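Task: sequence design from structure.
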């Protein structure tokens, strides 16, 4: 996953910024990028290669390139401070569970008792916007901020009715909505 610092570093170079702008405006092939930027093949190719290596751009089968705009939203989400899990006047039992299982914005472990796990899953579900669809890769990235066992968290979220899935696409269907 790209972090905000890596994205800023990728765009710190003039040639890469020009290539990025060309991709945003619809260029996809090396020839398109060269025409749009005025860069030579070596400079444009080097910038495209850096973007592909970083995961910001995918190279298609036909030689085209696709800018992965979701990398920006993921980096912004990752750079955001972790949710406040302190007791804010809400349910004291939930606050107790959060204090026991969350340290520095990460799960120390996945609770075994279902009642405690439901508290954690509700917090995790709040990471997902209602009505928005997420690829499995994106779900893994979002859950990976919390705990390394993203497969277990995904399974629990689906089994307990917080997320639903079909053909590798997930969406939020339950949990409380943070205000």
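Answer:
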């Amino acid at each position: 996953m790209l972090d905000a610092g890596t994205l800023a570093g990728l765009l710190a170079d003039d040639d890469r910024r020009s290539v990025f702008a060309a991709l945003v405006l619809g260029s996809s092939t090396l020839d398109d990028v060269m025409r749009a930027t005025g860069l030579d093949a070596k400079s444009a190719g080097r910038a495209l290669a850096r973007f592909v290596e970083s995961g910001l751009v995918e190279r298609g089968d036909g030689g085209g390139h696709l800018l992965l705009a979701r990398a920006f939203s993921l980096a912004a989400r990752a750079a955001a401070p972790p949710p406040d899990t302190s007791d804010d006047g809400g349910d004291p039992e939930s606050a107790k569970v959060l204090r026991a299982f969350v340290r520095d914005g990460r799960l120390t472990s996945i609770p075994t008792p279902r009642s405690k796990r439901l508290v954690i899953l509700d917090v995790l579900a709040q990471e997902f916007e209602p009505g928005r669809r997420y690829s499995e890769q994106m779900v893994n990235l979002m859950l990976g901020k919390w705990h390394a066992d993203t497969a277990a968290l995904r399974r629990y979220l689906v089994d307990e009715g917080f997320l639903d899935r079909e053909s590798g696409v997930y969406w939020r269907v339950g949990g409380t909505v943070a205000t």
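The chain has nine helices and seven strands.
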